[in-house]
Amino acid sequence: MTGDALELDRRERRTRGNRPARREGGGTPSLKVPFIRRNIPTYDILSEENLVRIEQTADRILAEVGIEFRDDPVTLDHWRRAGAEIDGVRVRFEPGMLREVVSTAPATFTQHARNPANNVEIGGSNVVFSPAYGSPFVMDLDNGRRYGTIEDFRNLIKLGQSSPWLHHSGGTICEPVDLPVNKRHLEMVYSHIKYSDRAFMGSVTAEERAEESIEMARILFGADFVDQNCVILGNVNVNSPLVWDGTMTKALRAYARANQAAVIVPFILGGAMGPVTNAGAIAQSYAETLAGCALTQLERKGAPVIFGNFLSSMSLRSGSPTFGTPEPAIGSMVIGQLARRLNLPLRCAGNFSNSKLPDAQAMQEGVMSMLSAVHCGANFILHSAGFVDGLLSMSYEKFVMDTDFCGALHSYMAGVVVDDNTLAMDAFLEVGPGSHFLGSAHTMRNYQTAFWDSAVSDNEPFEKWAEAGSTDMATRANKQWKKTLAEYQAPPLDLAIDEALRDYVERNMRAKPDAWY
Amino acid sequence: MTGDALELDRRERRTRGNRPARREGGGTPSLKVPFIRRNIPTYDILSEENLVRIEQTADRILAEVGIEFRDDPVTLDHWRRAGAEIDGVRVRFEPGMLREVVSTAPATFTQHARNPANNVEIGGSNVVFSPAYGSPFVMDLDNGRRYGTIEDFRNLIKLGQSSPWLHHSGGTICEPVDLPVNKRHLEMVYSHIKYSDRAFMGSVTAEERAEESIEMARILFGADFVDQNCVILGNVNVNSPLVWDGTMTKALRAYARANQAAVIVPFILGGAMGPVTNAGAIAQSYAETLAGCALTQLERKGAPVIFGNFLSSMSLRSGSPTFGTPEPAIGSMVIGQLARRLNLPLRCAGNFSNSKLPDAQAMQEGVMSMLSAVHCGANFILHSAGFVDGLLSMSYEKFVMDTDFCGALHSYMAGVVVDDNTLAMDAFLEVGPGSHFLGSAHTMRNYQTAFWDSAVSDNEPFEKWAEAGSTDMATRANKQWKKTLAEYQAPPLDLAIDEALRDYVERNMRAKPDAWY
User: Fold this and answer.
1) What is the pLDDT of residues A63-92, one digit of tens each?
2) Contact residues, chain A, for B393 at CB < 8 Å
3) Do B360 and A362 touch (CB under 8 A)?
4) Which of B91, B332, B364, B419 is best to mutate for the A interface (most A CBs within 10 A)?
5) pLDDT tens-digit readout, A255-289
6) E strands along B3-107, which residues?
7) Which of A235, A307, A475, B44 has the smallest count of CB within 10 Å of its CB?
8) Do the chains contact at A326 and B429, CB–CB below 8 Å?
9) Which residues form the signal peptide (chains A, B) (predicted)?
């Protein structure tokens, strides 16, 4: 044993005697906040000159190729009135036009939660963590992979609500495929309201479902309040490349019309729905998102909107999409710079993996993509917890690992505080060379808030870890989600509101025939 | 299924038909380089004002508390002649004095490898990946954890040499505890030379062992060449807080005297060997490293030296050290900024974990710490591959995963190239809305170098993954290291040099009685 390991061994033996009293439980409660105000800068990787080249390419795409807006005449009318060139469903835009239209969108807005202590500010240097969204499957170590149900949906809401490290309840946390596709949004929105007191998202899969989601928010918050404040988000996808389909633009407009925030997200798998080179995919993503953001302003000037992106790569051996790889991580940083030049709130990346298990691959890919979201300055990080299986499955264990990692990111984004206390000159004068800091006044004063303390990592020496059962992280996470669900208690909800919501849900469930696809 | 997952599913089905021919094998060979020239900026998180406050605190520590230099009168003589204040073994320094002394060290230097194609440039925007160093234990999935042997040592050298994603053979890749402690350096240095043709490190655990390591380099490169060029590194640890012991300063001076590079590394576990707050621990680390770097210049002006650091945190519940946590990751960024203000090559962080298995925790912690090393601008990243168990074990499987991740970082550090080809305007004009890019001329021209392709991640759909045995990443890595060792071929070594080295090793093995501690 030499070098660092020798030092470690020597010091560890020496320091295990005199140390401050143990802190109970993991998770560093002092870091808990309703959302993060980042104390570290964004990581700006591209020069002004190169950012301008990307914007100019996006302008050329918008002017020379254009975007198709299918199955939504109202949207075409909007564009016509705004001065775009309409050719069938193809719309072309003069350079700079969309940046002008989008300038009425707010740089920052508050999304209200039914518990006002959980309101989130989206934009600026704020960061909001929201769980993963949209997987048809769920998995856990006991039962493997299967289609999600409304029971899984509720379980995952409860796990999210129980974590101090998420800030938002999310939306389609998994697909409850045991409910008809045309009705499940009712139970999903109800479950968010019932089992969480955080902000949430509604449906976008049909205009009617978007409107019913918003209507349920009106029952909860009051119609006047909803007209003046953001209380629900809708995540709309571009049908890349360069197509907005009517389902999405109608949902987008439903949210904007109600003064609620659409999250505009192209899904670009480089080489398939966009160019195989990052710069071109970024230019396309910028163009597609910009058009969606601008459309919200034509529907209702001043409506909140979030500039999103979803770049991914593909395995050129198998043709499969890949996630948590370096190229989209770097791409997010550029998208972040571009969004800041538009002065819009940003959604980027999230915690993605293509692993089919909550294993080393899952966290390698997850951490790389999640850190890129943090570094690029994303304000709303959808998919912060749970995804495996290339977006197709929500893993109960990975959900627990990821929310724990979100906790670590609270500490990471607190950065380095430099003041007389943290510089610790008094400690150096007290301790001096060759002694240790464990019992020093400075340590006693600061140790309780000093370091992030994971609830699912094992930091014991090898022998103690072996005695405790030689568990891996997934096994510990399995134990933890069961404990959390067993101990879960729903936040109180006004009885009259609960009844009104149940009445709305059941009335609408009865009013339509079931549709299953 | 809604939103992103729906998009994915829809596109994946659509795109699996017409695509470019499969690329054989993983790993993206086009990225292979002898070392990385970073094309992304450093991530500078602290303001000039706060950096100056940290430097001023370091100056106060050096002037008011001082550093003890034990059991090495020559070092005390150096300091006396340089104008420091000597009080027994305690040495105090006027503010600014050490920065003046260290200014003769080179900002960048070349470390020569026996294969000149593998020479590495250390400093500037260059990045060199070197495997982990110093663990007494090794582990693999078949045989669990046990003490390392010279056979393990050779196996790990071979695995390193076989990976295109490391640039350096490292040093004590594991401790060969089956050899006497006073002789094992001879077989270690010989193994690096024999089984790798990359640059390597020598012993530091005694002055004699450092000198014998350098002597073997002279046999390989010629004494005159070694006197004028760096061919071997020595990693020396500060006995934090604020103590340099004689073993380390004598080894440091042996390397500097021979014009070889010492890597100067305080090992600070916040709350034990340094303050529990990051800013103070950084100031201490800066002071300790600066003193070591300056000492190399007093031994031989102009000798190369690397400014290192090793900050870690502790679990305040158990008192155990923690690795790959957010605080040291953030701390590295600040150390990087400080080292650049000194114009010295930098070593920071590496791939650390406290997990006892190559599991999700191992990669979560490893990726966080490794990305901090990349972002902070580290030039020489020791511990790039293999560590688990809080520095105490080298894992064969994690070694494979980490070298694969080093490959991903080649792509990450290539950043975003912005030019007419990557902006892909021709592809947008060719493909247009609603079609796909798989068969486009732009894709055909670029797909072979487009994306990082991992050799141990699984990117297949769930069903294909299940059919192939439902493996986790550790299982795939286990298979891979066995295959790599089976296929390993030693790089050719001049027979006369090999014989001279064997003769030197065996002569010195016989000349001394065995010592086992």
Assistant:
1) 999 999 999 999 999 999 999 999 999 999
2) 462
3) yes
4) B364
5) 999 999 999 999 999 999 999 999 999 999 999 99
6) 36-37, 67-69, 85-87, 90-92
7) A475
8) no
9) none
